[in-house]
């Protein structure tokens, strides 16, 4: 008790330094949400039980709610007497709370339109601090007015809704704060000059900060981007700045995004700026365009070739014609001697599905058929290239115009040629090219029974010296000697295909720079079957979700079905697409499976009709080999609305006894493990379900057998109590360690066994020649 008296005496005798720190003038609820925040900037504890809040006409005592002490450096909140908990999620639990006995602050509360002076008074009624509402501005509803620092009388509207009750004011400088500003950049010759300022906005000095800048050309091309990081050990005083200048050699043209950054401990700041390095005249050439569409070309396009020594960012370039302009609004970098295609519509992809260096330009300026001007301009207005075509060009309908050679004058129509197949995104292969060698093949897909042969034609104007072509396969590369040739000569190239292909469908190519790069698919047979039939629905129900399908199981990862065939009885259907999952269901696009993940369904444009009573099926690879087959004509397990499922996974399908009707609730399991598939167990075990069989109620008895080792075959016997065999079955198991068998419960006579207890005996013969027996009982009632 004596100690408390001494503390209270000490509190009473020390001078109080208390400030008005924040006002909520226009809260969300005018009747309950006002508050006044105070701050103890002194070195002593303040007991507020005899302090007052007043305006010019009314004085209110500050009362504990429930607190009364305010410690040095601590915030306190004087809440509206009718406070309804509006700030319960904003106010820290440790903040002292107060209120007033009156129903409002001052005579009429804190007005949000009339300027009034509010003061906090000591117990001696001396004014400790004052604030005139509306100074310097009225805050918007739910925003507070906050004192900027405790060292002056400047106020500002809070930067966040609901203010900062119980915290450092949102407008107050932090102890440690740093930012970056005044980012400027310009280029001279081959250098970019960058400058910016680093500012200490905090109240304390800073030392040991890192800063720098990032040159960002395009996210996908990290080799073009640069990041430079510096550090400073100099002392940066509060409210002072550090100016930085640096120059770097630019490595691309067009749009460059610059990011300047500064960091010290957990404080970071960034600022960005765009710099445009103009593209020089004829850094880009128009080498191909389509202005008259038709069956061959359903979309107009313009092909650009970069002749610059530096990569070019095309974003922001203006594309003009005689009537208007459009601007490229995508980030794309054209590397030296590379191409980029601007297309009119998505049908361009339908015409050229293998071209990927294109962009569909919004608000396309349609090119006139007979005369137009195609211009490329920098955003700064300087011209890059202009191409003017008119009736003298004699542009044929439904064709692409191709520049014969980039060394020729692009404005002369004699240096352009009509092409009825086009080569957007690739070097032009026109008949007028000065030096050129074309490559093609008589067939588009090779298999071992075919002869892999490429035909090369000198379709240029001048003789070609001897050259080397490279034949690329997934396994190796071959250099192939090409003799010299005169215009019109034909050469044949027959690469050696022995031992250079991986199993499956591969992409191989013949490349001869700078004339051609010709790709073709080649199929090499697998040593073992790469896939097999796994599930078939012959007779679907006419209900939502069911449709005819054939499920394949692949054992080789991704399998390309190009030039594969599916034979149903005597009818063959070409397959297409990729088998990318272990189980993929093939179905028709007019009657697809519904309600199953798209990754497990492959919809075909042409799917054969499956007879309801079953069929004979063959899966044939591009080498005309039968990969898998099964004869399921009139199979006893075919039922309406139930698929046929193979019991064992990853084996040949030609044994009809391993196909059973699906026991799934949906009647099928497309795209996933079959419902009747036997899975390997961890020990020898025989399970029987149901263990009490009721004829007429149960359809069958299920015997589930799990073995510790791979089985060659299994024998199943059922005995009555007299030791007589009432049922016997044998099944080859193809090295599987498990087996599921279904018995309809009828004996050889077609009758059900009498009521009673029966013994099931499974004799397991494994692949090593060992024999084991498993026993289990069941009841017939």
In short:
By secondary structure, the protein is mostly beta strands. The N and C termini lie far apart (89 Å).
Structure description:
The chain is mainly β and 781 residues long. The chain is 2% helix and 42% strand. The chain is flat and about 115 Å long. Residues 1-15 have low confidence and may be disordered.
In terms of structural class, how would the helical and strand content be classed? mainly beta
Largest sheet: 7 strands, mixed
Strand content: 35-45%
Number of strands: 60
Report, as a whole number of angstroms, the end-to-end distance: 89 Å
Task: Tell me roughly what share of residues is in helical segments.
Answer: under 10%
The residue-averaged pLDDT reads: 88
Q: pLDDT below 50 for ≥5 consecutive residues: which ranges?
A: 1-15
**Count of helix runs:** 2
Strand order in space, largest sheet:
6-9-8-2-1-12-13
Shape field = flat
Rounded to the nearest angstrom, the radius of gyration is 42 Å
